[in-house]
Write a structure and sequence with these properties.
Elements lengths: L8 H13 L17 H15 L6 H11 L2 H4 L1 H10 L7 H30 L4 H14 L11 H20 L12 H7 L7 E7 L4 H11 L4 E5 L4 H13 L3 H5 L5 H10 L7 E5 L5 H15 L3 E5 L14 H19 L2 E8 L19 H6 L2 E6 L14 E9 L6 E8 L4 E4 L3
Parallel strand pairs: 1-5, 1-6, 2-3, 2-4, 4-5
Antiparallel strand pairs: 6-7, 7-8, 8-9
């Protein structure tokens, strides 16, 4: 039974639609017609190139004319196909992300086809030994890699960065999504300016110190769509946390159905307050490669601006078991960092800290996550969640405080502390009141 070569039709259509919506993005997309699997997509891409070479504007009408000249208009499905491309594109601003998906599948197909030819040559005896190896090396050199690295001059980078800052400032003035992603924790945002896009953020905490509550707060308060990989909690438990925070009903009462009629009414009323752009992925059993791949694919389709991995210690590591655990985790966080750069989103990977008895008299540090050294290595921003009064009776002022310690920040103060109120029964984070 024949199988179709891997491809992503939605990503291919989204690339074409993005160019129709915003023709200027064509200059930022590094693709060729052969990168598209769908013959209709290849024909439209060739039409873009012809229109550009003629110095004309790209729109549905000029694409139609170009396709008619090449004789491909009827083959692609006519004007309905071309018109639908723009309508099916989530946002033209993610054109580079859609293109990255198309490139990755193109590289996969090129590699598979080259490998199949070499296998056939080996079976038929047309090539053996060193000759087959030489053909393999030649084939590998001819395959276009999915990740293409460009070289920029310092002036180009400075000009591009200035344009980005001006655009972000204008967006912020209009109340639109800023260049960084606010956490909804105002005292923390005052220190870090929000979560950086395109750079990995590491967050560590001891067991039971509010790691997941902090991540949930960030996801539900972010002004951008969020993708949340949960490896510890079930999706329903995470939603229970949100409804507990919104209604004031303890989470344990929700999960054990210790609810009266008023509680049920409050829960039903809270559903409308649950954001529709926070998306959960049940991560149990997923590998680091699956997380990165899913984030890149789903993130591009949904326009995700924040990815959360909760948490690294439970991710199935794909690197060789012969390596040390810290080396395997370094491989995992490297994959996340690459995906974060491709998506240009904020990405927070959490890890659990197991403390040595001798360190219990001070707040934890990023470096205390001994098996998660990569968290500190790859993160431009490192956060530590700590409840200093955990375990003390509430009547003695205990268990009412949650600190987020900025343990590492490349462009700001280290060891700054953002202090918040903490309500254990509903796992609610609130502004700190002296």
């Amino acid at each position: 039974m024949s199988r179709e070569l891997p491809h992503n039709e939605n990503a291919e259509r989204s690339v074409l639609g993005a160019v129709l919506v915003r023709p200027e993005v064509l200059d930022a997309i590094d693709l060729c017609a052969e990168d598209f699997f769908d013959p209709r997509a290849r024909a439209v891409w060739n039409a873009f190139g012809e229109i550009r070479s003629l110095g004309r504007a790209i729109d549905s009408r000029t694409v139609e004319e170009s396709l008619r000249r090449s004789g491909a208009f009827d083959a692609v499905g006519g004007l309905p196909y071309v018109s639908q491309l723009a309508l099916d594109t989530p946002t033209a601003g993610n054109a580079s992300h859609y293109a990255a998906i198309v490139r990755e599948y193109s590289t996969t197909r090129q590699t598979m086809l080259a490998a199949s030819e070499l296998v056939e040559a080996g079976y038929t005896g047309l090539a053996r030994g060193d000759d087959l190896l030489a053909q393999f090396r030649e084939a590998a050199r001819g395959i276009r890699p999915s990740q293409r690295h460009r070289v920029y001059s310092a002036r180009d980078l400075a000009e591009r960065r200035t344009r980005e800052l001006v655009k972000a400032s204008e967006q912020q003035a209009r109340g639109e999504t800023p260049g960084r992603v606010p956490t909804g924790m105002f005292a923390l945002d005052e220190i870090i300016g929000g979560l950086p896009r395109g750079n990995h953020v590491g967050l560590v905490a001891q067991t039971g110190h509010g790691k997941t509550a902090t991540l949930m707060h960030m996801a539900f308060h972010a002004p951008v769509p969020a993708l949340y990989f949960t490896f510890e909690e079930l999706e329903r438990d995470l939603v229970d946390r949100f409804m507990a925070a919104r209604t004031g009903i303890p989470g344990i009462a929700i999960s054990t159905l210790r609810l009266n009629a008023e509680d049920f009414a409050n829960l039903v009323g809270s559903v409308d307050q649950v954001p529709n752009d926070v998306h959960f992925v049940a991560g149990r059993g997923m590998s680091d490669e699956e997380v990165a791949r899913t984030a890149r694919q789903v993130g591009a389709e949904l326009g995700v601006g924040l990815v959360v991995v909760d948490y690294l210690n439970r991710v199935r590591l794909s690197a060789s078991p012969k390596l040390r655990t810290d080396e395997r985790m370094r491989h995992a966080v490297g994959l996340f960092d690459d995906a974060c750069g491709v998506l240009d989103c904020a990405w927070v990977t959490a890890a659990q800290v197991n403390r040595d008895p001798g360190k219990q008299n001070r707040p934890p540090r990023i470096t205390d996550a001994r098996e998660c050294a990569a968290i500190e290595e790859y993160s431009k921003l490192g956060l530590v969640v700590h409840r200093p009064n955990k375990g003390r009776p509430r009547d003695e002022g205990g268990d009412d405080e949650l600190d987020v310690i900025v343990d590492k920040q490349n462009l700001g103060p280290d060891q700054a502390i953002a202090r918040f109120g903490w309500h254990g029964p509903t796992m609610t984070i609130s502004p700190w009141r002296e």
